[in-house]
Amino acid sequence: MEKISFLINCSNDTLKHLKLLLNSLLSNLKSDEHEIIIFVDSDNEGTFDWLMTQKPKFKDLKIVTHKVKPCVGYSRNNNLLVEMAKHPIVSYLQSDMVISENYDEDVLRHVKPNMILSSTRVEPPLHGTSHEVITKDFGLDPDGFNLMEFNEFAQGHKSHNTGTEFFFAPFTFYKDTWLKAGGYDTIFRRSREDSDLLMRFRHQGVDIRQTYGAIVYHFTCVTSRGKDWYKRDNESAQKRVATQQSADIIELRRFLRKWGQFSHTEKINKYHCDFAFNFPPNLALLGEIEPYFSRVWIPMNEIKQAYITQLQDEEHIYANELLGFTENDWKVASRYYNKTDLSGKIKIGLPKENQYKVLVAGVAPTQETQDQWVREVQEVCHTINKVIEEYEVGEYEYGHLNIHIRKKAIRNPELKVMNPHFDMNLLEIN
């Protein structure tokens, strides 16, 4: 059997889940020769100390800690885990997962070069049903989980001939496939990192597969929303859920700035397209439109500066709260992450014809037409790249808006992301 590097990231409040995962790795892997690397990103339960007691049970268990206060963060630590992996085949597992029997054999049967192979998750009924997930309750938390019952269920549901093109954790891949794309973009701190990486994979021609022949149990959303996120009467848990939702809105804006629209199921081409206001927009309207376009033209520099200041205030507030960063912590650690820069994106005045490829513009709405104008703008925001792709060069009217396609020019982001250098001396590998 080929050897796999199993990669696991863990953080606060996940020790019980991690114990289940390690127990399943110990009992359900067919080979004991695989490398297991666990990144302890934050620790409020003595996770590191417990892991050190487990090292004698495994032939190749590495425990990674760091000196970044208070944590490294999901996107960056997963990139570091892949870089540290010594085997060509890498399998990523979240700490709130449990693997089924012969999991290593199952993923090796299906994974190929230039492929990202997602396994199938079994989850309790906390979300709606979907094609890629099996809904079956084996416990909402680790206390009532029965590994033997789950193994029996998984064996009865494995099929080696079916699957989908969905992409989500857990996934297995050849290390060079990940490195070719540069891994996760560290601009994403709380969500959408998978969506961005998936889009770059699609553009690189990577085969995206999900197999029903490798199964895990997933307690779901523990690492993002907290271990009690589904308890409606838990005030602190629901506050964290609300904060995560606010953070996700910001992460979606980051994704839209990169790709122009959102999709998990198809390859997106982002075209160079400007939007021009001939009137001073309020900050809320500017914020709704700006992410979708290459540049936005506004009449007043004061609005630009106010918007950039607002963005700077909002951009990391929710992520920092969820991850435990103080303002000073973030000043020190932010050097290791990509950041948003809108200084060259928002322009003052109106563009001349030779300054744009495609321009969306419209006169200021009246009080009577304002609602309709906003609806039209929203529709154009969501469809502009498809409009450019489908329509010929020329001028078109859409309600109160004018769309001038002068030249079609694809402006996709770089397919290999470049993250800031990380000082590996900040890591300790045990």
Please explain how this structure is put together.
The relative contact order is 0.13. Helix 9 packs across helix 12. The chain is built from 14 helices and 17 strands. Strands 1, 2, 3, 4, 5, 6, 7, 8, 9, 10 and 17 form an 11-stranded mixed beta sheet that branches. The two termini are 26 Å apart. It has 430 residues and is α/β, with parallel strands linked by helices. The protein is 36% helix and 20% strand. The radius of gyration is 24 Å and the shape is elongated. The chain has 2 domains: 234 residues, Spore Coat Polysaccharide Biosynthesis Protein SpsA, Chain A, CATH 3.90.550; 135 residues, no CATH class. The mean pLDDT is 92. The longest helix has 25 residues.
Describe the protein's topology.
Layout: E1 4-10, H1 15-28, E2 35-40, H2 47-54, E3 61-66, H3 74-84, E4 89-94, E5 97-99, H4 103-110, E6 115-123, E7 133-135, H5 147-157, E8 163-164, E9 171-174, H6 175-181, H7 193-203, E10 207-218, H8 222-225, H9 235-259, E11 274-277, H10 283-289, E12 295-298, H11 301-314, H12 317-323, H13 327-333, E13 346-348, E14 358-362, H14 370-390, E15 394-398, E16 401-405, E17 427-429
Parallel strand pairs: 1-2, 1-4, 2-3, 6-7, 6-10, 11-12, 11-14, 12-13
Antiparallel strand pairs: 3-17, 4-9, 5-10, 6-9, 8-10, 14-16, 15-16
